[in-house]
Amino acid sequence: MNGDQYRMRDPRAQYRGPQEQGTDRQATPGWTDRMDQRPDHGEATYRGSDRLAGRKALITGGDSGIGRAVAVAFAREGADVLISYLPEEEQDAQETVRLVEAAGRRAVTAPGDIREERYCQQLVDRATGDLEGLDILVNNAGYQMAQPGGITDISTEQFDRVIRTNLYGLFWLCRAAAPKLPPGSSIINVTSIQAAQSSPALLDYATTKAGIIAFTKALAADLADRGIRVNAVAPGPIWTPLVAATMPDDKVDSFGTNTPLGRAGQPAEVAPAFVYFASQESSYVTGEVLAVTGGRPMS
Q1: pLDDT tens-digit readout, 64-80
Q2: I want to staple 205 with a disulfide (CB 3.0 to 4.6 A). Which of 50, 143, 144, 295 is the partner?
Q3: Mean pLDDT, to the nearest integer, of 139-155?
Q4: Known catalytic residue: 205?
């Protein structure tokens, strides 16, 4: 690691773009090592300062993309982490484990599907047991599948998968974790620019992301008297395996070019928002949404 991330640079040219998916389209959920242009998770740049020393975090979707970047940042800030992910993402998950352990922190893996209520309860139990406590819950796992034809192309099966992954899983995890989180804990949900600027091709996904904002604000009010803060991060177009696996080729080629900064963001550029919400620096912030969108407004 070095201090290169602190050097002033033009944000429009900080990363190369637009990204190109390459000739081989991936199946969902997508894998990092099959991407022609791999995302930056902060592997070589993120430098921590003990802002989360001794903390215990559960991160869903922690194998790749934003989840991996958050796990790396949390570990370098001093936190132990448990990551959940689909079983077929084991290779990506092990790379996240390697990065966390290289930072001198503990990494626990828990493959499974958050569409299953029992698994969500087991995740919280694993975290409180294997990590000997839990004080940060990051609901990052999500699913999307773009359908250029709009609503007539969205099957009931797809709609069900999106709703159960993005909303049911979040609900079950928060419900299971809330009684076990001590005062000072933080829940961080992941919404999206799609909650405010919804695309017809992502109608079902956008619906869940708007729901997450409402859920976050209501849960923040619910848990405030327990000293538990609840906030959300709203990424814009961020380059992750899920994008490469679920969007048409022409959309991938132009991904992120419609932002004021003119490019897609990288997971490493989103992770600091999670560190802020997880740390004591945001102790007077709850029920808020922090947009990391390259300049696209959340209104």
Answers
A1: 999 999 999 999 999 99
A2: 144
A3: 96
A4: yes
Packing angle, helices 169-177 and 117-130, rounded to 10: 40
| Strands of the 289-292 sheet, one edge to the other | 107-111, 80-85, 56-60, 136-139, 186-190, 229-235, 289-292
Q: What is the pLDDT of residues 99-139, one digit of tens each?
A: 999 999 999 999 999 999 999 999 999 999 999 999 999 99
From the candidates 6, 46, 205, 284, which is the catalytic residue? 205
* Interval 141-164 mean pLDDT: 96
161 neighbors 110 (Cβ within 8 angstroms): no
**Model confidence over 174-209: pLDDT tens digits?**
999 999 999 999 999 999 999 999 999 999 999 999
**The one-letter amino acid at 107:** A
**pTM listed for this prediction:** 0.89
